[in-house]
Amino acid sequence: MELAKKKKSSLIELLGFLILNVLTLCMATKHTTTIDWIVKETSYTRLCSTKKILTVNGLFPGPPIYMLKGERLHIYVRNEGKYNITIHWHGVKQLRNPWSDGPNYVTQCPIKPGASFTYEIVLSNEEGTLWWHAHSDWSRATVHGPLIVLPQLGKTYPFPKPCKEVPIVLASWFKGDVMEIIETALENGGEPNKSDALTINGQPGDLYNCSKQGTFRMVVDYGKTYLLRIINSIMNEAMFFMVAKHSLTVVGADGAYIKPIKTSYIMIIPGQTMDVIITADQSPSHYYMTARAYFGVVYDNTTTTAIVQYSGSYTPPSTPSFPNLPNYTDTDAVTTFTRRLKALSAKEYPIHVPRHVDTKMYITVSVNTRPCVKHSCDGPNGSMLSASLNNMSFVEPKIDVLQAYYNRIKQVYKPNFPNEPPYYFNFTAENLPDTLLTPERGTKVKILEYNSSVEIVFQVTNVQNATENHPMHLHGYNFYVVGYGFGNYNKETDPNKFNLVDPPEVNTIGVPTNGWAAIRFRADNPGYGSCIVIWIDIPAGA
User: Fold this and answer.
1) How far apart are CA 60 and CA 109, in angstroms?
2) Is 473 helix (H, G, I), strand (E, B) or coil?
3) How many other CB atoms sit within 10 Å of the CB of residue 209?
């Protein structure tokens, strides 16, 4: 009897050992898909002329990536172009994987012409529409594309499944060489040229010369619903977006779900993404899908169009119906829409807004100037334009910051980026004095304690009378937009109005014109990630 028990016990142990080994083998041999990308110049014809643009695999916009929530993916990138390049996976947190985040000279040295690099995309809780783009100079004008994160197998959306999903990529088109445009602006210290057209899925649309034949058409069936995955990859402009005579329901932003918003238009800032449901419930016909800019210091005031075309037999109109877009300067339309964004905050999609704050930062966003030899540059009074955060213009190092941090290489950066501006004044006043114009230049970072809670208030200033809606993007994290307003932030009274219940969880925000925005997040992604990247129309360190 005792012998039988021992044999039985031995068999159980052996079976357990075999199962453990099988599981270990499965985990060790789990396959991670690799996609091959070639960055190369490709000829494209737009606005009556042909030119070569930098592309991935010859496509503009670039190839879409589809992944399931929590997956990993390797992308092998070979650079056959003429310029250095890196790729950023905009909105992917890259938990404990900062080396593949993409900002040149911050997390990696750029991929030189003729060289290659393999990125690893590591998803965590992202779900919805994200995007990827070049993160070196202005190559992202043409090197970008969708990154769609679908629910895990067996899961579905927190809204009825649409009939079809359609990526809608908004972009800029320049007749000139985009790299030459930014190089000229950097050399001469002035504004870079504004774009010559805006595009939807690579096409300017009917309102531009030589463009009608290529206009993007979205064919729909009456009564069906469609999920538009909208990406604003435009270089500088925040955009109003509408479809004539159709209601839109916004259900997601920046790879997170929100409480559904029924609206006639959306306002989407550069770098931002939105998931929008549209139902084909109008009389079968052709309807314009349109987008145009919300004003800035310099902006493209043209309008790009696509066509929503109903299937079936009917007489098409001579001209599709056109929507009544908000005016370029309609700040009320911007504010009304933005205030409606709230996190879904459901059981399966919880949010964790920090109530206690360990580190507070107050960061001014300005467009300054610095002196130019013989006052010969293109900025105001012969100066050079120079963007700044807390009066600090970033200087690109020769070694990437992440490598310097982990290898303890000295004199690459300084860990003393300030928590507040060097001096206070009426940041949003008109005609500020020239003594506020010149920023300090350097490579400075902010180092945060692991798992600490952080609050940042971004304050736009009217230095140079250059206030506008400034997009801000945080690498390595999503964050909660707990408050925003116009004028100067008041640290005594404004926090009383913060939304700590269901603030939207995003990775990109537009700081209001002559205003401020407050965000909170937890610094729980070790390594690089706590670096604030400013997206404005004047290159930092110009």
Assistant:
1) 25
2) strand
3) 11
472, 474, 478, 480: CA torsion to nearest 10: -50
Q: Is the peptide bond before 61 cis (omega within 30 degrees of 0)?
A: yes
Distance between CA 500 and CA 482 in Å, rounded?
6
19-31 per-residue burial string, b: 16 or more CB within 10 A, e: under 16? eeeeeeeeeeeee
Burial environment of residue 141 by CB neighbours within 10 A (0 to 12, 13 to 18, 19 or more): buried
> Using an 8 Å Cβ cutoff, are 463 and 425 in contact?
no
Tokens of 126: 């992202």
Place of tokens 């320049």: 174
Q: Calculate the alpha carbon distances from 79 to 54, 137, 310, 324, 409 in Å.
A: 10, 15, 41, 43, 28
Distance, CA of 117 to CA of 120 (rounded, Å) = 10
The phi, psi pair for 494, rounded to 5°, reads -65, -35
Per-residue pLDDT of the chain (542 residues; tens, 9 = 90+): 444 444 444 444 434 433 434 333 343 345 789 999 999 999 999 999 999 999 999 999 999 999 999 999 999 999 999 999 999 999 999 999 999 999 999 889 999 999 999 999 999 999 999 999 999 889 999 999 999 999 999 999 999 999 999 999 999 999 999 999 999 998 898 888 999 999 999 999 999 999 999 999 999 999 999 999 999 999 999 999 999 999 999 999 999 999 999 999 999 999 999 999 999 999 999 999 999 999 988 899 999 999 999 999 999 999 999 999 999 999 999 999 999 999 999 999 999 999 999 999 999 999 888 888 888 899 888 989 888 999 999 898 999 888 898 899 999 999 899 999 999 999 999 888 877 878 999 999 888 889 999 999 999 999 888 778 889 999 999 999 999 999 999 999 999 999 999 999 999 999 999 999 999 999 998 875 444 333 322 333 33
CA 393 → CA 233, 351, 399, 409, 412, distances in Å?
Answer: 24, 34, 18, 22, 15
Residue given tokens 């789990």 in the structure block: 30
Strand order in the sheet with 116-122: 49-56, 34-46, 72-79, 116-122
**Which tokens hold the place of 500?**
């700590």
Which residues contact residue 205 at a Cβ distance below 8 angstroms, ignoring those fewer than 6 apart? 199, 211, 212, 215, 216, 303, 304, 305, 306
The enclosing H or E element of 21 equals helix 2-28
Taking residue 524's Cβ as centre, other Cβ atoms within 10 Å add up to 16
414 neighbors 442 (Cβ within 8 angstroms):
yes
3-state secondary structure at position 183: helix
Q: Is the dihedral of CA 201, 206, 209, 215 positive or negative?
A: positive
The DSSP symbol for 422 reads: S
| Token pair in block for residue 461 | 């200033």
Tokens 């580190």 locate to: 359
Strand 248-253 relative to strand 256-263: parallel, antiparallel, unpaired? Answer: antiparallel
pTM for this predicted structure: 0.92
